[in-house]
Batch of 4 targets.
Target 1
Amino acid sequence: LARLKYWYQKKYPQTSGFADLLLTIAPALNLYVDYVNNYDQARDTYGRLKENSDFNQWITNQKTQTGLIGDLPNLLITPVQRVPRYELLVRELIKHTDEFHVEYKSLV
């Protein structure tokens, strides 16, 4: 969201549109590969740690100090779910963009 705001406020006049923004953030999506590949291990590790009362107390303290709403497993899955959303977004943009539109080639 921060990049989208930056693009809109600072870069919009110099770019042809939203497709350019997607192309600039595409390399950052590679960061998700390692995260997704290690997600199962992180989830399993959390499951084991959850059996430890000291860990549970630490988690409770962190929630209190940070104002966190929700639990760690829900936060851990969020990046895993994000990449498919980007893919769906691009597919929908392609589907609803005329092939003669200036951004169409950038989307496909």
Note: Residues 72-95 form the longest helix (24 residues).
Target 2
Amino acid sequence: RERERESLSMDARPETALFRLPSLARPCLPAPSLFLWGTVLIATGVICFSAFFYAAVLSKLLPHSGISFLTAVENDRYYCLLIPLTGPVLMIAVYLHWLSMKLFKHA
């Protein structure tokens, strides 16, 4: 009878390792792998920013290059208009998000 009470109590913990508590002291990946992923993500961000900055600003200021791909980027006006138009669209998206959360809370 005592054994049944122990098995039914909430404080009894199973002996298996399946129920180990998470710990911040033990990282999921080894440190060199984390450093590699961090470096890859930062390098990707720098490359994307540089490409966008060239397409939006530098290509309009530099002289004509004669390379067909760079000429197409120089003549493109999409990225020059993208930055100013992102603000109003972002404001509308934030307002709609706020409105939907209010409707959800009070429904």
Note: Helices lie at 2-8, 31-61, 68-75, 78-106.
Target 3
Amino acid sequence: SNRMASEMQQPRLPPGPMNPSMYPPQPIPVHHMTHPGTNPAMVPVQSNGVGDTHPKKKRRGLFSKELKQMMYGFGDVKNPSSASVELMEDIVFEYIIEMTKKAMDVGSKRGKLQIEDLVFLIRKDRKKYARVKELLTVYEDLKLAKKAFEVDGEKVP
């Protein structure tokens, strides 16, 4: 009777690659975790004599105000630690860099990046696609509204 009850509580999986009991839990190696000090996207670039050779320093804090507000909106404390904000900022920049590279690959035939390339990349993610479409529509509406206030190419006070 006890054996039958335990069999009912836990489904039996056949031996094979999908059976989790075949694979004991493994710790995640530290080098696979995103950390500001080990981020491959943040490795200093070679200088060509123009600009900063350390892009990480240049962009640090670019989105910190907005990220703090978003983190609070998603349940974090009102003033999150600077390390948390920096980590989030690194993740955001990694995502932007990755998506930009993919969009450049998509639009490589034209030789320049266009909004349509980014929209194409997110077309399968319904939430992102809907939000991007909404923002692009609002952007176009704002452009038309601004144009309506211009007379002969000059802004009306």
Note: Helices lie at 2-9, 55-59, 64-73, 82-106, 115-121, 126-148.
Target 4
Amino acid sequence: SPSPSKKKNISRNQSRTAICYDPKMLLHKVPVNHPEQPERLSEMIDYLKQTNLSCRCKNLDPRLAQISEISLVHCVEQINKIKEISKINKKQVISVIDDTYASKFSFKAAKAAVGCLLKISDWCLKPKNANKSQTKIRNGFALIRPPGHHASSDKSMGCCI
């Protein structure tokens, strides 16, 4: 690791790493003893702020994914199933399958999670700004929940809706 005197002072516009996060994702609720708690995400955000790592990254504004984007991976029936759960009482948590739960705000949280992933992807794939005032984003980290890596196109599973 470079000595402190050799480290560059990197501004947000010069960073090659982007991060994206949306506080809406903290609204996804699960049972109290479930491992996929909101604190998993909020503690990562706090750590990035406390260590000033977030200041060394390009912080992207989050966006909600459109249904048309989500339906590129998930079937309409699965999307509608999770969307329907958003009509329940805000204190309720519903078991979708085995260890996978959803609540009133899970659909919005999932749209925020997908939106953050898409935003990072867009920035990493876009060419360097034509006026060269910004460094090209080379990689990114989307801090998201609910997770989605276990869900299939037509089924929730493994904490992923």
Note: Residues 106-125 form the longest helix (20 residues).
